[in-house]
């Protein structure tokens, strides 16, 4: 059995154990798990938005530099 198959089998086992543990937990424990997932999702969305904003900022700076270079090139040709 290859490493990939062993890894997938281990992941499947961990998933089954987590599912079993969740199903047998109290409502308070289930709510705590849901809260952790929602917090992680919110953090991931915030991080994604931060990355997107930074990428847009960098793209805008690059576009400004290209426009400046174009203007200088046109001025030097005139």
Low-confidence parts: none
SS-derived structural category? mainly alpha
Distance between the ends: 71 Å
Query: What's the rounded overall pLDDT mean?
Result: 93
Walkthrough of the structure:
Helices cover 92% and strands 0% of the residues. The chain is mainly alpha-helical. The N and C termini lie far apart (71 Å). It has 2 helices and no strands. It has one domain.
Could you name the key traits of this structure?
single chain; 78 residues
Q: Could you give the topology of this structure?
A:
Layout: H1 3-23, H2 27-77
Briefly say what this structure is:
The chain has one domain (3-77). The protein is 92% helix and 0% strand. The protein has two helices and no strands.
């Amino acid at each position: 059995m290859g490493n990939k198959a062993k890894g997938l089998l281990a992941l499947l086992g961990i998933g089954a154990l987590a599912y079993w543990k969740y199903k047998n937990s109290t409502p308070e424990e289930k709510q705590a798990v849901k809260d952790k997932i929602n917090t992680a999702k919110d953090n991931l969305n915030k991080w994604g938005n931060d990355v997107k904003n930074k990428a847009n900022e960098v793209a805008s700076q690059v576009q400004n530099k290209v426009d400046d270079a174009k203007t200088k090139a046109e001025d030097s040709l005139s």
